Amino acid sequence: MGFEYKLKVKLTTKQTEEIQDLLIKNIAFEKKYNLEGKAYLDFKKAENNSEMPNINIMFEEDGIYICQYNSANLWADISLLKNYLEGNNINFEIMEN
Fold first, then answer.
1. What pLDDT digit, counting tens, does each position of 4-32 carry?
2. Which residues pair with 3 in a beta bridge?
3. Range of the domain at 86
4. Fewer Cβ neighbours under 10 Å: the N or C end of the chain?
5. Which residues sit opposite 6 in a β-bridge?
6. What is the C-alpha to C-alpha distance for residues 13 and 20, in angstroms, rounded to an integer?
7. What is the CATH number of the domain that holds 51?
């Protein structure tokens, strides 16, 4: 089990695409896939030998779901997401699951 968070945020299609592109450039990016109409991104560090990713991010209509498997810190290894939201003055609310 990981540490689960939901960012309640309203994004345009363009903003969602920009965020996904930004995150895919992350050195730990492993794969992108769609499941039940939702886009998922998995991130796995090189030293991680398990099947489980370090981070899983899912894009939903009402926000972004983030599961951190190795850290209780929401922004660990994905601070560029926070920087993008704050830099573009996008309001968001953090919900812990």
1. 999 999 999 999 999 999 999 877 899 99
2. 68
3. 3-96
4. N
5. 65, 95
6. 11
7. 3.30.310.180
Tens digits of residue pLDDT in 51-67: 899 999 999 999 999 99
In sequence order, what DSSP letters do the residues of the chain get, joined into one string?
A: --EEEEEE----HHHHHHHHHHHHTSTTEEEEEEETTEEEEEE--TT--SSS-SEEEEEETTEEEEEESS-S-TTTT-HHHHHHHHHTT---EEEE-
β partners of residue 16: none
Q: Residue type at 12?
A: T
How many domains does the structure of the chain reveal? 1
Residues in the chain: 97
Entry pTM: 0.91
Q: Which residues pair with 43 in a beta bridge?
A: 29, 55
Sole residue written with tokens 């997401």: 81
d(CA 79, CA 71): 13
Phi, psi (rounded to 5 degrees) for 26: -60, 140
